[in-house]
Amino acid sequence: MADAVVGLLLENLSSLIQTEYGLLHGVKDEVEKLSLKLITVRAVIEDAETTQHTDNAIAGWLGRLKDTAYDAEDVLDEWLTQVRRSEFESSGQQVTNSWFYFNQPFFRHKIAKRIKKIHADFDAITGEIFKFDLKTRVVERGALLDPSRETSSLLVEPEQVYGRDKDQRKIVDMLISDASTSPNDVTVLSILGVGGLGKTTLAQLVYNDEKVSKCFEARMWVCVGEDFDVKRLTILIIECLSGKTCDLKGLDPQQNQLNDLLSGKRFLLVLDDVWNDDHDTWGKLKQSLTCGAKGSSILITTRLETVALMMGTLPLYRLSFLSDDDCWALFKGRACGMDDEGLSADLVEIGKQIFKKCGGVPLATKVLGALLRFKRNVNEWESVRESKIWELPEEKGGAILGVLRLSYNHLPPQLRQCFSYCSLYPKDRTLIKTELIQLWMANGFVRCIGRMELEDKGNYIFNELLRGSFFQDPQEDYFGNIVRCKMHDLMHDLACSLTKTECCSVEFEKMDTIPNSVRHLSLIVSSSKPSSNHSYKSLSKSNKSLHTHLVLSTSYPPSNQPPLQMIFNKLKYLRVLNLRRTGIQQVPNSIGGMKCLRYLNLSHNYNLIFLPDFICSLINLQTLNLNRCHNLTSLPKHMRKMRSLRHLDVGECLSLSKMPIKMGQMIGLRTLSMFVVGKRKGERINELNGLKHLSGELQLTGLELVKDSTEAKEVDLASKPNLSSLLLSWGEFSFRRWVDLQEEEEKKKMSERVLECLEPHVNLNQKLEVYGYQGVVFPSWISLLRNVKMIKLLECWNCETLPPLGQLPRLQVLRISGMKSLKCIGVEFYGEIGGHMKGFLSLEELHLEKMPNLEKWEFPYDDDNGKGTFPCLRKLCLVDCPKLETPSIFMQTSCCLRNLDSLKIGGVSFPTKYLSNLTSLNLNSFEISRCTLLKTLPAMGRMG
């Protein structure tokens, strides 16, 4: 992480020099000298970081370097905060207190003194470089293949391979089948998995399989490593084929000889441990392998998904973790040999707890098993159970992290920093993608060049770590977006081993164990007995330079809420503060002094009623998360001053009645989950016009307060292409008898004009929800949202017709509920596609609910007899439509409902005989209730 920390410091120094404020203090020369010093130091960091694991002196030197760089960063951040405040205030062409403050001699002296102190510290650190003989250059990654990592096709311990029989059969079958049927000269199958998972072992099993040896005339095994040199690899392949040393120097004669050796032969080439993701380099090697017979195959093993996808022609084979049974068998084999009958019940119990640490990774299981080989003392087994893998001796447990650390060293510095920061989370904790990216941003880990947004760069980093197997188990939302993931236990161990002095995750009652050098802290709060106030005083006193403080609650509300005011009094350099689910009722006043704060999470605090005005003084704040603060009634009125704010999440703040005045000045906002329309100028909907960068989901509530269509048109949603979901909500509209009929009609017309003017960009690709709409007809633009996947039309009481939603090609979920005035769903609902009346080609779920006056549901009869409508429908819900006659759709079960999996019918009045066609459906779920005319149930003999 040292390279990333120093790199960030250099960037901030450069930014400061370029401002007029950076020249006010007479320290420009000092800053420029410091920048040059940092460039010199940075040149040897790569070399130092690769050797620190075996040299304690270098490790200590790196620690001092990082501490000094962090201290310098704190000084610069404080300085840049004043610069930013002055720039914001002077933009109003006023003589400000900040400008006056900058010109005071005491402030100039203070800044100059602190910069000189930092310069002196870096002088001392630079002077030590010669002691370690560190190379002042960037070490070329992958220049050499570590001999200890070189592999061969020989399987050393075939009798101790567990849980890979199924994988072996699958891959062998894929290779043999492809060899028989493939029209290509050579196909490529990639085995993907984390380090130590057994990719090489599996490839060895496949390579030595009897079926494979009979199918392929020639077989070759090459251990690639990080050095993907085409000439080197070509020579190794030649030597595998010929059994002789190849002395050819040029690539052309090498390729000619390879062509002679392979010509007309069906071959299998294993490329083990590939890291290269350069398409051109791979293309040069692959081209020389096209001389074999059709059906030839290449099998590669890699840790990187980018490599697997780039090289593979067949779907990649993602290797899974071992099952508990297989892990236990492997562990016993290593710990006891073939004789495990002598294990006592106590040792069996402890052993089963030990192998759980390995998380299904064979390498870790073997190492820990070998560590206990033939030991039968309970205390010895308990010591291994209680130890942390990265604290084991290097020649034992360290071998596990050595394998994983190779993947880490392969990352660019920026990605290393983002990965190691994740050690703040406890094991098995779900990592939320958007939260993680915002935390990286707040700490300055995400930096980008050019016009790329910080969020886009953070998304790229997340995806790269996922592809590199640093993250696992990605979970998607309904729209196919990855929203969360986890870290494998061993990857978490690796992250912790890299950040012992910087990141610390500690339980609430063990706060006294926090090292003074920690910059990033997560406090795990449970329901156990809290520790004394002394612990909090200690935290405030010794950890003044904390950059991250996460309070992670395991229960709500926590019974031992920390005395937050005491914790935060001294933490003026904090960048990240997470108080989610802590049960706070008011925001601690000490937060007002955190001028460097970039991320503040107060979400899920149901007793929080208001935010104090000092929140608006946090001019560096990028993210303010208030999600599910159900009782929050208002936001600070001067929030428009928060020019750095990019993400404001007020989703499910149910008591919020209006927005702060003039939010349109917050031009940096990317996320605004909800906007509540107000009555006064500056609170009205047209404030959204200035927010050009809005993305994600936007909910507009209180639309009944929009005074005219001009105001709605000024919102200009069509110019906001990054919005993916739009929720439009009117207040409840009631048919009160004493309301004048003309006034009622005017409300309907106004609602129609407002909705017409709220047309979103055609890029809207997730959800459109309309709630409480008071108009009679829907605007035509709804049928133009060709990318939207979900539409909900709820409580639209006055609507008498439905728009032609059937022509939306990507619509997957449609829910229509509470349309009291709708009497007929006609064929216009489906729209015309290609001259035929058919539609809903991608729809998977259809919900029709709470329509008391719906009498008829028509079904289009086209040239294909209905086969072109609802071809993908899996779930149909028809509830509380008491006047509905038998829907025509039930007469088309052989075509439009052929894929139906779930059917729910309730509160309808059609008789049993019209359900007879349902017997042909292959349903897994069938629910029927409150059907008064239903006498008997149809025979559903094919239900799964």
UniProtKB/TrEMBL annotation:
Domain spans labelled Disease resistance protein winged helix: 424-495
Superkingdom in the source lineage: Eukaryota
Keyword tRNA processing assigned: no
The Disease resistance N-terminal domain, residue ranges: 5-91
Entry-linked Pfam families: LRR_8, LRR_R13L1-DRL21, NB-ARC, Rx_N, WHD_DRP
Organism from which the protein derives: Aquilegia coerulea
GO MF annotations in UniProt: ADP binding; ATP binding
Record protein name field: Disease resistance protein RGA3
GO biological process: one example: defense response
